[in-house]
Input
Amino acid sequence: MEIWDRFSSLEGQLAELAEETEILVDSQLEELASGSVKGDVKNSPLGQMLESEAKTLKKSGELHQKLHRKFLEKADEIETQLRETRQRNARMKRKLHLIRPAPTNAQIDLQEKKNRHFAQGITFYKLFWVFFIGSFLGVVVEVLWCILTRGHYESRVGLIYGPFNLVYGVGTWALSAALYRFRNRSPILSFVGGFVVGSVIEYFCSWFQETVFGSTSWDYSHMPFNINGRICLVYSLFWGVLGVLWIKDFYPRMAEWILKIPNKVGKPLTWVLLVFMIFNSVMTAATVLRWMERREGHAAESGWEEWLDNRYPDERMQKIFPNMKFLDEE
Output
């Protein structure tokens, strides 16, 4: 109640000040309306006083709006953390869950602070590990989904080395970077953020693949409310739901895994994996571009291109990227 008492006292003082200001300004405006000021009103003492008061009141209003937003945000954060902690504790008590409930973001924040972890907060190190793990888990989930729905295994990778797909990595990276500030806030904000961020990412990835490689991996032209076949309303709504699930459940679990990486090895390992992912991406781009050239009938003109042709022939590329469709095939 101490905070409320302080606010109540302050509210009374502000109300008294507002009443006194209103009386003073009203009397000045009446004087102005009476026509007592002759000549240049703006440069008269009364005009200058009113202009100064108007500026002061505007600044005061802006300050109060800023404080109002800040208080509402803090109240939302308190209510959200209380609700999420209560829900998690209730799930833990039941002991019937197949998967252990995710820790709350507040718990992750506290553990990172206590351990002075190398990937604390939303730093470069945290975002890289989110990107790296997301690139891997996205492939695993999509392969399992393919097995369950189609009854057979099908490659879903996006790089030639290892089970990684940059689309999922970039998606998890962007969702984490954009929604981190809302991690302890209402799920509505996470939904809106996921809807917007996911749609932008999906559109950009589709445009980039078509522009650079002359191919596509998805086309929503047959879906209602689509934009150039790159995104559509249904999948944008899915991105919104994913935004909530990601920042409230998946991200805390991933952050918990990252917390297990010792500080001594965390930073050097990050740089090693970063170099590997860059190399992997460059090699993937080279093999796909060479694949395009072979389709257009361009013979190898160097030892490097001959090596790519021998190492990554069309059959192998088609097996690695079964969903990649070139524009001339459509």
Summary: Residues 105-329 form one domain. The first helix runs from residue 2 to 33.
